[in-house]
Amino acid sequence: MEPDFNLLRVLHAVAEAGNFRAAADRLGVTRSAVSQAIRRLEDSVGIALVQRSTRSVRLTEVGERLHRQIAMPLAVIGSALEDALGEGPPRGLLRVAVTSIAERFLSGPLVAGFAEAYPGITLDVTVTDEEFDIVAAGFDAGVRLGEVIEQDMIAVPVGGPQREIAVASPTYLQRHGTPMHPRELAAHRCIGWRRAPEVAPHRWEFSESGRAFAVEVAPQVTTNDLQVMLRTALADGGVTFAPEDCFLPWIANGALVPVLLDYVQPFPGFFLYYPSRHNPPPKLRALVAHVRAFNDQVQASRG
Q: Taking the chain (303 residues) in consecutive chunks of 10 residues, what is each chunk's mean pLDDT?
């Protein structure tokens, strides 16, 4: 069978989008064109690749296997085509998966500056705390904590070292007292974070006399949404814990108060990461250069 790469691109888009309409929007075609392309591909291989319902579609077992096998080659072909057409300013769709707690990347200035500097690039940011293979999922890059990035990836710091801190509202602390040692958190109402329902809540880690330790906090409120944590703490709901950057505006105006600062320690922070390739596409090189420049600005502001 002579392969039709356009049909494979449509299958890849459907697998990533989860429905024909979103896949059509991503490809710039009609929903009917996507449906017909999938039917042509199924006819050519002689087996169903997609299970359809009124609201969504999902790949069959064979479709999933085929998608896993074509994701990397399609990414390589896309990069090769971009290199061949690489004269002039960088352009194209750049997809980045970013953890919800990477505040330096998500807060606005970094993305806004990139959009202004590279008007030919469409930046598609997916905020997700799931851990997955970004290449197989069709992303060009990701932003995560350094400790969870695969060893074969290239990683560029985003914003430099971070530290995680505990905060609460002044009213909560007046009512329940201020913890003086991390172990006292067990007696407080805590607001925790977990990246996925089947994963244990994030550990609250501190340091004392140069030795790191974790506190067994049993959060009364747990969520995978940083904004829910923040709003609950602002509403006097308890003590919460996250990278300091997430709380800075509310610490500055007094709505949140940091506690236990004597027991926090810095960690390397977040990284933009992407596959190790001999020649990354221009759009990705542009983002890497922008992040490096952003890091230089952050370091200069710290004096």
A: 72 80 78 86 85 76 84 70 66 91 89 94 92 83 84 86 94 97 95 85 90 90 92 97 93 97 91 80 91 82 64
Strand 239-243 vs strand 162-168: parallel, antiparallel, or unpaired?
antiparallel
How crowded is the C-beta side of 169, counted as CA atoms within 13 Å? 16
Which pair of structure tokens corresponds to residue 35? 């449906």
User: Identical fold at 1-71 and 86-161+268-303?
Assistant: no
Inter-residue contact 298 to 160 (CB < 8 Å): yes
pTM of the model: 0.68
Specify the CATH architecture of the domain 1-71. Orthogonal Bundle (1.10)
State how far the Cα of 251 lies from the Cα of 109, in Å rounded to an integer.
Answer: 20
For residue 120 the two structure tokens come to 């030919």
Cα angle 123, 248, 216; round to 5: 100
Among 65, 99, 47, smallest CA distance to 269 is for 99
d(CA 171, CA 240): 14
CATH superfamily of 86-161+268-303: Periplasmic binding protein-like II (3.40.190.10)
**Per-residue DSSP letters for 60-103?**
-HHHHHHHHHHHHHHHHHHHHHHHHT--SS--EEEEEEE-TT-H
Residue 138 and residue 95 in contact, taking contact as beta carbons nearer than 8 Å: yes
120: helix, strand or coil: coil
| Residue range 162-266, CATH number | 3.40.190.290
**What DSSP character marks residue 163?**
E
Q: What angle do CA 103, 296, 195 make, to 5 degrees?
A: 20
For the chain, domain boundaries: 1-71, 86-161+268-303, 162-266
Confidence at residue 79, expressed as pLDDT on a 0 to 100 scale:
64
